[in-house]
Amino acid sequence: MEENKEHYNESDIQVLEGLEAVRKRPGMYIGTTDVKGLHHLVWEIVDNAIDEALAGYCDNIEIVINKGNSITVKDNGRGIPVGVHPKTGLSTVETVYTVLHAGGKFGGGGYKVSGGLHGVGASVVNALSSWVTVTVYKDGKIHEAKFANGGKTTQKLTVIGECEPERTGTTVTFKPDPDIFDTDIYDYETLKVRTRELAFLNKGLRLTLRDDRDEEDTTGEIFHYEGGISEYVKYLNKNKTPIQDEIIHLEGEENDIILEVALQYNNGYTDNIYSFVNNINTHDGGTHEEGVRRALTRVLNNYARKNNILKDKDDSLSGEDVKEGLTMIVSCKHPNPQFEGQTKGRLGNSEVRKIADNVFAEGFERYLLEHPDTAKLIIEKNMTAARARVAAKRARELTRRKSDLDVINFGGKLVDCKDKDPSKCEIFLVEGDSAGGSAIKGRDSMTQAILPLRGKILNVEKSRLDRALSNEEIRTIITAFGTGIGQDFDLKKLRYDKIIIMTDADVDGSHIRVLLLTLFYRFFRPIVEAGHVYAAQPPLFCIKHGKTIKYVLNEEERDAYLASLNPNTKYDIMRMKGLGEMDAEELNETTMDINKRVLRKITVDDIMSADEAFSKLMGEEVEPRRKFIEENAVYAQNLDI
Which residues are catalytic? Predict the structure, then answer.
């Protein structure tokens, strides 16, 4: 027995020196090496520049995508210190870029408040880059250091010239290592969304984003908002109709913790509440957001009671009531934030809850007293939401499943699968009875359920939950999913691992798909975020040559496949019929067979951008929708969807 034990002694313990650990396990430092990790490198460097802005020494940051997909980040802050660091014996610039956890974020008076999570940004970017050049403007001199091959110093910090004595700042240019990342191509729109967000969160700071890969774009875009998060709320509400003219802005500080809140109600039915700590998006909320929400509900109830808008017999407004149609940004600046959760998306500092409550309540109470007309409009909207909530609660009872038999037989619609293990099951939402009939015959009855939809479902962008629940098609979908809705929603009760939208590739099919996605985004967002929603991709063409049958999704795939054939090959091309015109065998082979089909996963990478898109396409305002259609009409004519 002893001889069979695996050899394991001191020599098996690895000691990784310098930045080797980062290259060995990059996911520990940037989360992932896919496209998200690639873009994360940019924010690690930008965060350092933002820290200078938070400290009051920087008001201009430039981000440039260079030809060849390297990145340059330039700021006019104080510039990284250039003297020899007492502990490392290296210049401070080299120390910051080659030693993990070396920076100004760990005490010592460098920064009172700083962004980022770990304080390892510069060295990690260096470790994961093919090369990095750091240029510091300080004390009338231009200093430069260079690194390559995973962070190794190739040029020690050297004075390469002189500059105006008043010029200060740091310029960093880096090229991500293609051996580390799945892709090294930067996406301008991805960088644009976060750059704009940072400009909103840091009022007065000017951020410029430029793409030098585009020879026609020589100026780039400038993001500069003197109104800060108030302008952020205005931006988020641009496709909505506010019920109040002005945006409420509140700010206060207690125990070195700064809280800033901007809010405005609109006539919609969904809330858009986003919170940040030191510019980090706390998408799972936390104590700062909880304190503000608690104060919002209490202050509105107190005001309504004192002014006899809410009578003694009336129930108090709930947190759900007061957030209907609310767009709100909560920004907290904290000297020592503690983040929770796997994605570090939640603030955990317990002391912040009370501070946020106090600061917001004091300012909001004063605002309501000084603006009684606006206060009345807000309370009336809250009370309407409360009445709708009660109606929705009754309507939700109709969607609750009592047994598997109820689900199989309700409305005579859902044809369920036999397997009851959700991880193995999927449901197809199919446009029309004819396609539904073929899908039922062509499915794998063990794991595939079919729900035919008759006509177009209700546009929930223009409807409250109570009205949505009065729609038979929507009630059927809710009951089939098994998760409940609203306050009853529970993702763990989802009965299918995949929810697959299967509609024709025409205008009607596209409209139905958008209506369903709007429903999922507004009322089932966790299902989308968890990656359970897909769109089926039926092929557009069938190519036959000899005994071979090849299905392709679009013209591009068709042309590529034909180019791969022998020039002498004789072939026939058929444009595929609509789903309703396919028989069961065709539908199975082209769209449903798990070994042959193509599914497109529906994701929400950026919740705010998704919200803007749904508001523009499905909301009350006609002009934004018309403008979008006009701008994309030519594109849409050539798009296979």
Answer: 431, 504, 506, 508
